[in-house]
């Protein structure tokens, strides 16, 4: 179901394409360029209520709200050939490139700008497509992430009067950096629905990991089996996030929409369709409308099938944020398909979806102990829900 029209701020600058680890790295800036080109070709930038928000580099003071100053100094000092493995810099995952600090700080600036838009009331929704760098730790880069823009945006909200933030991460990888930043903070509930750490980086995020002594139940992890498909994946998101959102009553929902859960992604082994990715965005938008006064900040994240998956997934994210009905049957604009073909005689997708029916059975229909995903869901509910006064069986 499409959301009603909403004012949405799209935090974007072509300078965000400067976050470039080099030829052959999976985190290719072309994925963002192609996404923005598809958004333009679909006419989404002309949607009433959608505003482009210019981005600036985050200051060291802003970065220091979630990162150690020694780490910031190390990133700023980095150049070609720089190596600091202890801080995760100059590694295969995180090679250092010229102006790495500036490029990384601009992503933080974009996502924090989105947080400002939503919290100030200038926009109901905000989208930071370049954001979602959820692996970065306070003192180390990790998993293609230098600075943690999501953690910085949540911290900005807390410092400007927000008392309750719900973070929902549907990337294939565990949102470990954001979880760690707020591990012992009861003002933030972090929910990560991801491929199990038993089969995927970073190897963390299990159901028993529920937060620090002052915030039990505020870290929520739903580790799913490899090859989980649309319907059980959506069921997992709804079964865990919806009851927590109702009970916690967040003032803002912040979400990370890494699309590396898609079946085409080269780095993961999940089995989610484009239709499932869109449905997840709609579900989160509806939860924000119902429980957070409509205040929703969405970011990008992982996604390494850069020609077919990433542009479509994040074009859908912008459409959902703006309340635009963009069904999966919508033809992909010919101009964009020609652009993709020109990159190397490549076939672009014909439609905005994969033609998959993603109608799922909600949790209230009953727990199936023979279903491995239902067992994972129940393990998480039993680990977390009692801390919130919720019954794992019936909530």
TrEMBL record:
Superkingdom of source: Bacteria
SUPFAM superfamilies from the UniProt entry: Arginase/deacetylase
Protein name: Acetoin utilization protein AcuC
Pathway: Ketone degradation; acetoin degradation
Residue span, Histone deacetylase domain: 25-319
GO biological process, one term: acetoin catabolic process
Leader sequence residues: none
Record keyword Mitochondrion present: no
InterPro entries: AcuC, HDACs, His_deacetylse_dom, His_deacetylse_dom_sf, Ureohydrolase_dom_sf
Gene3D superfamilies found in the cross-reference section: Histone deacetylase domain
Keyword Ribonucleoprotein: no
Organism for this UniProt entry: Occultella aeris
One function term, GO molecular function aspect: histone deacetylase activity
Family statement: Belongs to the histone deacetylase family.
Keywords, in A-Z order: Acetoin catabolism
């Amino acid at each position: 179901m499409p959301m009603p029209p909403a004012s949405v701020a799209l935090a974007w600058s072509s300078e965000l394409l400067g976050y470039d680890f080099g030829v052959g790295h999976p985190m290719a800036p072309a994925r963002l360029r192609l996404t923005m080109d598809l958004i333009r070709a679909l006419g989404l930038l002309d949607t009433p209520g959608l505003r482009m928000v210019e981005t600036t580099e985050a200051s060291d003071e802003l970065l220091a709200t979630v990162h150690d100053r020694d780490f910031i100094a190390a990133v700023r000092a980095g150049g070609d050939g720089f190596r600091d493995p202890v801080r995760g810099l100059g590694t295969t995952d995180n090679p250092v490139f010229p102006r790495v600090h500036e490029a990384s700080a601009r992503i933080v600036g974009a996502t924090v700008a989105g947080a400002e838009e939503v919290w100030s009331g200038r926009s109901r929704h905000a989208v930071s497509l370049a954001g979602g760098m959820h692996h970065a730790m306070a003192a180390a880069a990790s998993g293609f992430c230098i600075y943690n823009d999501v953690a910085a945006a949540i911290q900005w909200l807390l410092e400007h009067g927000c008392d309750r933030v719900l973070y929902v991460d549907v990337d294939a990888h565990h949102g470990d950096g954001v979880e760690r930043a707020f591990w012992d903070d009861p003002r933030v509930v972090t929910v990560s629905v991801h491929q199990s750490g038993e089969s995927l980086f970073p190897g963390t995020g299990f159901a028993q990991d529920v937060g620090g002594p002052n915030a039990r139940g505020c870290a929520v992890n739903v580790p799913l089996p490899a090859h989980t498909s649309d319907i059980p994946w959506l069921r997992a998101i709804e079964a865990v996030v919806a009851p927590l959102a109702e009970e916690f009553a967040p003032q803002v929902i912040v979400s990370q929409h890494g699309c590396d859960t898609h079946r085409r992604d080269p780095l993961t082994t999940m089995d989610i369709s484009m239709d499932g990715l869109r449905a997840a965005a709609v579900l989160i938008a509806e939860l924000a409308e119902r429980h957070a006064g409509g205040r929703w900040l969405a970011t990008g994240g992982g996604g390494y099938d850069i020609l077919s998956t990433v542009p479509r997934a994040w074009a859908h994210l912008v459409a959902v944020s703006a309340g635009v009905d963009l069904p999966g049957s919508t033809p992909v604009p010919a101009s964009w398909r020609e652009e993709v073909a020109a990159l190397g005689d490549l076939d672009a997708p014909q439609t905005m979806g994969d033609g998959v029916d993603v109608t799922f059975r909600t949790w209230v229909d009953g727990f199936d102990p023979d279903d491995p995903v239902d067992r994972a869901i129940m393990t998480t509910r039993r680990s977390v829900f009692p801390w919130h006064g919720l019954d794992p069986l019936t909530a």
